[in-house]
Amino acid sequence: MSVKDDPQGRARLEQAQQVLLEKERRLSDVFEISIYQFDAETRPLKRLGAVGMLAPNGSETNIAGALRTAVGGEKKSRLIAAVLFSDGIDNSGQDVVGTAKQLGVPIHVVATGYDLTGTDAGRDVSIAGVECADPLPRNTQARIMALVEARGLKGRVVQVELVEKDAVLATASLTLDDVEGVQRVELLFTPETKGRHEYTVRIPKLSDELIGQNNQHSVSTLVVDARLRVLYVEGGIRAEYGTLVGRYLARDPTLEYLAMVQTKPGLFIQRTNIPDWTERGIPSSEELLKTFDVFIIGDLDSRFLTTARMVLLEKLVRDEGKGLLMIGGEHSFGGGGYAGSPLAKVLPVEITNKADQITEPFRVKLTAAGRNHPIFTGITEYFEDHPVAADGPSLPDLLGCSLLERPKPSAEVLLVHPERGNEHGPLTVLAVHPYGKGRAAAFAGDTTYRWYQVMQSLKESSPYIRFWGQLVRWLAGQEEEEALEPGLRVNTDKGFYEPGETVRLEAVLIGEDGRGVNNAKLQAVFTSEATGDRKIRVPLVREADRAGAYVARFIPRHSALYHVEVTARLPDGTVPPKGQQTIQIQVGRPSAEFDRLDLDEATLQGIAAATGGQYVHVARAGRLLESLVNEQRARRVLLEQPLYNPPLFWALCVGLVTTEWLLRRKYRLR
After folding, report:
1. Which of 44-48, 238-242, 270-274 has the lowest average pLDDT?
2. Most confidently modeled range among 24-28, 44-48, 195-199, 241-245
3. How, if at all, do strands 142-151 and 124-132 pair?
4. Which residue, 106, 115, 134, 203, could crosslink 221 as a Cys pair with Cβ 3.0–4.6 Å?
């Protein structure tokens, strides 16, 4: 109703306001008037004169809802008719004519606006939509697709801009056509900072455009570090596999993993949290292997990995920057026939044909290099020769390890055996090095599960989760502190919703130990201009297959910008540090009112015809209102009361006659 399309340059709302204010006294003298304003919501006004204070600032028009509220809320016995001022443009998706017909009241329709087709005033370019992935990976080129519609501007060249706040992130030129439908414009940029961002696609208003409100469209998306993907292949069922998968991989909300364990020679069962993963067996194509960031090879004989796969793994580490880890076992390193294999080139230790194992328990020793390495950030005290205090943590022994011959010159040795050694020095337990663009590690142990199980049984804190988390992230080239920052992170499955569409709200709560918190209570509070002072509270429920993950669903009914505050509470009722976050959700496009500009005469005429009302243009609305006043003045309501059997009437007559007779007798009158 803000479109200025009449000969005097008035907005459609102003056209209606002028007519109603001119007829205010005439209408009020004859009718008891109820007047309503409407956009997405319908609200009563105290008096007819209040229409002069209205402004066309709604984000949606719901004609059907307005008719139900205004007409359906009045007593039918007192309601003579309704008068609707509108341009007929309804974007609620409801059956307007059908709703009007069901109300059973004549609805007179006053059309505001004009058909702009083929006129200079009808020239318009708009952003009909924006396609944007959610979330977007940080420091990776991203694409946002703008959907542009135009009419009356064929051949005109416009600049399409992608902006965030006042910064222009990308631009593209577009030559407009006159073909029905949208033109697609690709905008490329690289998001650099994590968190929720609001990007706006816009086209500067042209000098001969009627309106500019539909020249931009905003979309909200979350920029995150790409979720790491780990492939773990184990040669047999053992405690190390079960704990590594169950206590680390499956509980780290920042990871996607595919874990495979061999149950019979060449037969593997798998466990994964990768959405829509349907492949069976160890991935063998470069395309599939390339989707993983880190490869972990357990107690697996090289025959089952195959030379072809090892060639691909070597190439991916060298050229694509992937990470590779081999952990100890009877069929790892030399015992698994890896000497001279493509993976022998990748690993930071020399592989021989020896299959020796150390079977005596021992407590690993941290080297000077290990003490300063990112893998041991924040957990070095667990690996010191002597606890820093009498009650300090004491790391359980490993029950043995593979015997590694010697580290390569490029390797950093981080953990060693405290007593055993050879001519090359103490026996290596953990060594790392760069390989091409990637990184590789060799870990001779295979019983780190004791670091978790034993210390948990003693109710002591354990470095297990952090050790494995930091090792995997170092192999992938990421900093652990950044990936596992404690606190609450909230996201939605999309950046934009239509009214009535289900919003899926996702939250992940990370504890101080870097692990997902599964026993908290989370609640979301939704507020918006559409809901007024009313707060909508929705609890989040645990998502069983992801550590620390919670989800809620909410269906917004109106177009508005919703503010969502999510609060996490621990079992003791306290809010953890950074346990509260607020995000915004856009429901309905802010410029949806301008998707269509032409007067929708068909809808308005249909309302009048279906209800027995009249249809007029606003230019002749004064005559319609005057005719309604005259009809009401001429209308007479006659009340008939039959006199043949009213008890009170006959009682009164008898009483009067009796009184007269008594008076005549008393005064002896004839």
Report:
1. 44-48
2. 241-245
3. antiparallel
4. 134
* CB of 108 closer than 8 Å to CB of 624: yes
- Give the residue among 595, 523, 586, 534 at the shortest CA–CA distance from 558: 586
CATH classification for the domain delimited by 487-590, as one of 3.30.200.20, 3.40.225.10, 2.60.40.1930, 2.40.50.140 = 2.60.40.1930
Highest mean pLDDT among 111-120, 133-142, 570-579, 632-641: 570-579
Fold (topology level) of 120-224: Immunoglobulin-like (2.60.40)
* CA-closest candidate to residue 211, choices 152, 144, 145, 147: 152
Angle at 468 between CA 467 and CA 471, to 5 degrees: 85
Given a cut of 90, whether residue 665 has pLDDT beyond it is no
| Residue range 474-530, pLDDT digits in tens | 999 875 444 457 889 887 766 667 788 888 888 889 888 777 788 999 999 998 876
**Structural domain boundaries in the chain:** 12-115+598-634, 120-224, 228-477, 487-590
Confidence of residue 461 (pLDDT cuts 50, 70, 90): confident
How many residues appear in the chain?
A: 670
More confident residue, 190 or 667: 190
110 C-beta neighbours (distance < 10 Å), count? 25
**Token pair for 387:** 């606890």
Q: Which of 196, 210, 173 is nearest to 3 (CA)?
A: 210
Q: Is the dihedral of CA 425, 429, 435, 439 positive or negative?
A: negative
Determine which helix (DSSP H) or strand (DSSP E) holds 361, and give its type and residue range: none
Intrachain domains 120-224 and 228-477 with the same fold: no
CATH class of 228-477: alpha beta
Q: What is the CATH number of domain 12-115+598-634?
A: 3.40.50.410
- The CA distance from 186 to 352, in Å, is 54
Closest alpha carbon to 307 in 334, 341, 340: 341
- Residue (of 210, 43, 83, 221) closest to 607 by Cα position: 83
Report how far residue 658's alpha carbon sits from residue 522's, in angstroms, rounded to the nearest whole number: 86
- For the CA atoms of 346, 352, 355, 359, the dihedral, rounded to the nearest 10 degrees, stands at -80
Q: Token pair 């509980």 is at which residue? A: 251
- Other CB atoms closer than 10 Å to residue 272's CB: what's the count? 18
Model pLDDT, residue 648: 66
